[in-house]
Amino acid sequence: MKSASTCSLLNRYDQFYIFTHVRPDGDAIGSSLAWGRALRLAGKSVQIFCPGVIPDKYLFLPRAGEIRDRVPDGNGAVPAFVLDCSDLNRLDYMKEKVQELGEIVNIDHHVTNENFGDYNIVDTSSSATAEIIYDLIGECGFKLDREISLCLYAAISSDTGSFKYENTTPRTMRIAGNLLEYNLNPSVVSRKLFDEYPLSTIMLLRDALATLRFEEEQKIAWMSVTAEMIAVNGARPEELESFVNYVRNIEGVAVGILFYHTGNGETKVGLRSNTVDVAAIAWELGGGGHPRASGCTISGDASTVEKKVIDLIKVFISENGTPAVE
Amino acid sequence: MKSASTCSLLNRYDQFYIFTHVRPDGDAIGSSLAWGRALRLAGKSVQIFCPGVIPDKYLFLPRAGEIRDRVPDGNGAVPAFVLDCSDLNRLDYMKEKVQELGEIVNIDHHVTNENFGDYNIVDTSSSATAEIIYDLIGECGFKLDREISLCLYAAISSDTGSFKYENTTPRTMRIAGNLLEYNLNPSVVSRKLFDEYPLSTIMLLRDALATLRFEEEQKIAWMSVTAEMIAVNGARPEELESFVNYVRNIEGVAVGILFYHTGNGETKVGLRSNTVDVAAIAWELGGGGHPRASGCTISGDASTVEKKVIDLIKVFISENGTPAVE
């Protein structure tokens, strides 16, 4: 077992660094905090790093505010755990610092992981890196406590969309059940992760829904958001994150689109489907992604870009059809 | 154990009826279908009844279309399982029929259950009646199959809001994990239960969000929907079900309100909060509910009703404050 050699590495050092990826999500933050806490409970000195800002919504996790965005100089051979990163480029401006450190332990669940570590604990059947950390804590004989459980539970819930996504397995549910034993409140965690948004988000949603349009007997549906709409509502572009799902979730819609006209001559296009391979569509437009969730960025006049994308999807649907789900 | 006597009842009869409540939810339907299937696999003859229509969103559950809304005459002493009902009034126009039948087995998880059965299997620590059915299937030595697992999983997911609500326990998660072993796709089930809506719903949401208003430094927020708005969008009043949550989920909002002006001189008021006892507010307005989710119906002119409710909440907040959550 690969984690056995990791447990022996742990015996050889007293100090460790933990790194996670740029634009961190709940799994990146929760897994890092949980692993850091487990190491500290085992008597180790630990610092956690992330290249960039921790989003406000994750600051309810204990010690999330202590995650650092700068690596100090003169570290010597401190071993580095790199969590939830498919490759070292995910560490953005911290990449070179990590390569100057000691041994690298790569802990991840992405199918695209490049096994870049001196040790690689990669399990693509895990819904979240947090599932791997949960096992590792057990295998190393470390303790779980409420703080670790909260961080791991939030990480798993975050990466499975509250146990809705296809990556949710029987094991995912059983681990989450074991974590809930530590007196966690799933309602409070879920609200923080999923169900709370600033006023600006709902005002922006209101304006976005007013732009909802359809073509091809409502098989294609889209909303168009402009930089002005974001500014008027005091919102930030990140608040658009889930908007395209409002389009995708309409019955009968095969492809849901969110156009975000950034105001600098570019349009960011989000594509979602329950039935159509939108990765193939994004690919033709110079983007990429997953079969059900993809995106691309296109330069040009707003209405020209919209027409180009919609026309391509029309052709795609007429050639490939829109198969029923299940 | 109470279920032991139920298992013995099962040996004494070959035919059973299963009843569940009016305006059935996912737990009512899923539990009934699962228990019916388990009994049939054990060689029993079973019919399932529900007073009223099964909502479209649940028709993906196997055999949901076979649930009957009329009880035939001349039944004799057929034993009746009554599922997910706190009292017999929940059976609406079927109540008397059930009382004319044979022995009644009351299987439920509501704290308000009146133990109305000849046998009562009531477990208020269960997130859903489906958890009790899961145990009962095991205790009676019945088989689980994919169809039963799908129905039980959907029932539990439905009653816990995809494992978000406070009623979600470690046991809930472990049962759901065991059910997922039967090759279920949590993504497909979740979409059916939570993430799919007719076009009319999103158009109505668009119009509802355009009415979003605030008072008291945004501690009170509300939307106002009229019968005309519902008609114009080809929607039905049931589609308003989750709208008040869009108001409640805004950061800083203490009380979220949905006013539905029905057009016949009445306004239905939905109240939601994460911090304030809205049951007490609804009580003063002649309604009722839970501390975090309540409602009432008020007669009168639309704007007068809105002012009355908002003024009362203002007084309530000034007297009781808006405590922070956690």
Overview of the molecule:
- 2 copies of one chain form a homodimer.
- The first copy, chain A, is α/β, with parallel strands linked by helices and 326 residues long.
- Chain A folds into 2 domains: 192 residues, inorganic pyrophosphatase (n-terminal core); 122 residues, Diaminopimelate Epimerase, Chain A, domain 1 (Roll), CATH 3.10.310.
- Chain A contains 12 helices and 11 strands.
- In chain A, the strands form 2 sheets. In chain A, strands 6-7-8-9-11-10 form a 6-stranded mixed sheet, sandwiched between helices. A 5-stranded parallel sheet of chain A has the order 2-1-3-4-5.
- In chain A, strand 3, helix 3 and strand 4 form a beta-alpha-beta unit.
- The longest helix of chain A is centred in the last third of the chain and has 19 residues.
- The first copy, chain A, is elongated.
- Chain A starts with a helix and ends in a 6-residue tail after the last helix.
- Chains A and B meet through helix 6, helix 7 and helix 8 of A and helix 6, helix 7 and helix 8 of B.
Topology:
2 copies of one chain form a homodimer.
Chain A: H1 2-12, E1 15-20, H2 26-41, E2 45-49, E3 80-83, H3 95-100, E4 104-108, E5 119-122, H4 129-139, H5 146-159, H6 170-180, H7 186-193, H8 199-209, E6 213-215, E7 220-226, H9 227-232, H10 243-248, E8 255-261, E9 266-272, H11 278-284, E10 288-289, E11 293-299, H12 302-320
Parallel strand pairs in A: 1-2, 1-3, 3-4, 4-5, 7-8
Antiparallel strand pairs in A: 6-7, 8-9, 9-11, 10-11
Helix pairs in contact in A: 2-4, 2-5, 4-5, 5-6
